[in-house]
Amino acid sequence: MTGCICGKTKPFEKCCVPFLSGKAHPKTPEQLMRSRYCAYALGGYGEYLLSTWLPATAIGLTVADLSQKSVDWQKLEVIASSQKGDSGTVEFKAWFKPAPDQDDLESMHEVSEFVRIKSRWFYVGGAVS
Ligand SMILES: [Zn+2]
After folding, report:
1. Strand partners of residue 82
2. Core-most of 6, 7, 43, 106, by most CB within 10 Å?
3. Is 114 a member of any domain?
4. How remote is the CA of residue 33 from the centroid of ligand 1, in Å?
5. Distance 62 CA to ligand 1 centre (A)
6. Do the Cβ atoms of 78 and 71 come closer than 8 Å?
7. Is 6 inside a domain boundary?
8. Domain of 84: which CATH number?
9. β-strand partners of 90
10. 90, 29 in Cβ contact below 8 A?
C-alpha cells in the first residue's frame, strides 16, 4: 500500500490527480504545493506548472521546459504551511537523487509563496536555502 507521491497517505488518484488533471483546484497553498511537487517528480506536467504559476513571476518559463524531468525527486516533507487571507506560505524539504548510481539523497529546502486570485491559488516564488 502506497500513498501519494506528495507524501500523503491518500492514494495518488484521490490526492493530487484531480488537481493535475484540472478536475479540481487546490483549496489551500499546501495542496497546490504538493500537487506541483508531483508534477515535477513525474515530469510532463509543464502545462499544470505554468497554469498554477503567477503570470507576473512566470515570465520566460515555457511548458516544454517545465515538462522536463530534470531532477530525480524522491520524497517531499512539508515542514510548515500557513495561510492568511489570500496569501500563504509553505516550507518544505524535497529530496532528490543527485545521480543514478548514488543512493544517498540530497535535499532542497524552500519556503514557497502563494497568492489567491479569484478563488484560485498560484505559486509566486520561493526562497531556497
Ligand atoms: Zn498528493
Report:
1. 89
2. 6
3. yes
4. 9
5. 24
6. no
7. no
8. 3.10.450.50
9. 81, 112
10. yes
